[in-house]
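yo, Phytanoyl-CoA hydroxylase-interacting protein is done. seq:
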Amino acid sequence: MTEMDAPLATPCNIQICDVTCDSFRIMWDMTPEDSGRSTHFFIDLSRKESRDPNRFKHRDVPTKLVAKAVPLPMAVRGHWFLSPRTEYCVAVQTAVRQPDGDYLVSEWSQVVEFCTGDYAMDHLQQLLDKAKGSAGRLLKFSVFYRNQHPEYFDYVSKECGGLMRPALKDISGSHGSPINGKLQGVFFSCSTEFDTGLPPKDSPYGPLRFQIPAGNLLNPNISLYFADFYCMYTAYHYVVLVLAPVGSEGDTFCRTRLPILDLASNPFLTYTAPQRPGEEPLFCHASDVILEVLFTDPVPLDQGSVEQIRGHHQLMSLTTANAKKDPSCKVCNISVGR
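structure:
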């Protein structure tokens, strides 16, 4: 048996490093002999939840990625459309391509599991650039509001000392948004009707509405961040913004993870300071997207008012709890996964 025909050792000690939302680097231990003669690596990658990992059916007929042997660690990107924050399983074989074109291959390594990361700042900047094109003209508004059922406000009054406390953001929207399942806040809306300039009469979230003057949540002591842009198989799009008091825990979380927006000059939500003594600040919101505004600190009920709203309260198609983003939409998707 020649050296080229000698069996290849099974790759061991698989290590994954430098994981991003759409790439990773992989390395493993090989004997010096195998390292010197390996010509190719076979990489088998599958989502963790898959019940059929679809390993190579034949040892010498690769059906997934075949990469030329390179010094390890090897970067893996672009070969698959990796999704952010998704658990994967990966295994490897080393191989020697023989003169007749067949491969001498090792046994499969053990299967290693890892999870891809959130969108990085440059990915969010791509998403922000797309969102800017859908924002539309700015409309004036004067209040932020939150629609809920009576049970919610009873609970806040009796059990929470009158404070609407931050809750963990769900996983709706873009899978890679860094705030999903990680940042706590209280959601508010600020959209107005074109004909009245007032909040809409209808709500999918409940018949009671808490309204608070816009300046209580949007002012020079607040940092404004862009967090997401998505749709749910519909013509309209959502933009998620974060309002965090400067220096707060929420502000610290967002500072290194989300693009910060200029309060006075951005296409989504603006605060313009009074120009003359006695004037009021001017607040504006984007007209062609649905804004979801997450305020990261508790909000006292006594800063606003709770009132019954007119209209219907079962527009469930507009609710977004844990909703999946449309992966086929060309308007709100970027190239690094869904």
